[in-house]
Amino acid sequence: MMNVILIFVNPCFPSDSENLFIDMADRLFEDGWKELGYVYVNIDDCWASMQRDAQGRLQPDPKRYSVGGGIHKLARYMHDRGLKLGIYGDMGTHTCGGYPGTPLDKIQIDAQTFADWEVDMLKYDGCYSNATEQEQGYPLMSKALNATGRPIGYSCSWPAYQGGLPPKVNYSQLGQICNLWRNYGDIQDSWDSVLRIVDWFFENQEVLAPAAGPGRWNDPDMLVVGDFGLSMDQSRAQMALWSIMAAPLFMSNDLRTISSGARNILQNKMAISINQDVLGIQGQRIVKEKSGIEVYWRPLSNNASALVFFSRRNDMPYRYTTSLRKLKYPTGSYKIFDVFSEKTATLKDSSDFVVSVNPTGVVMWYVSAPGKLHFHKFFRGGKPRGTEYDAAENALPYAFL
Amino acid sequence: MMNVILIFVNPCFPSDSENLFIDMADRLFEDGWKELGYVYVNIDDCWASMQRDAQGRLQPDPKRYSVGGGIHKLARYMHDRGLKLGIYGDMGTHTCGGYPGTPLDKIQIDAQTFADWEVDMLKYDGCYSNATEQEQGYPLMSKALNATGRPIGYSCSWPAYQGGLPPKVNYSQLGQICNLWRNYGDIQDSWDSVLRIVDWFFENQEVLAPAAGPGRWNDPDMLVVGDFGLSMDQSRAQMALWSIMAAPLFMSNDLRTISSGARNILQNKMAISINQDVLGIQGQRIVKEKSGIEVYWRPLSNNASALVFFSRRNDMPYRYTTSLRKLKYPTGSYKIFDVFSEKTATLKDSSDFVVSVNPTGVVMWYVSAPGKLHFHKFFRGGKPRGTEYDAAENALPYAFL
Question: Boundaries of each Alpha galactosidase A C-terminal domain copy (chains A, B) (predicted)?
Answer without folding.
Answer: 280-361
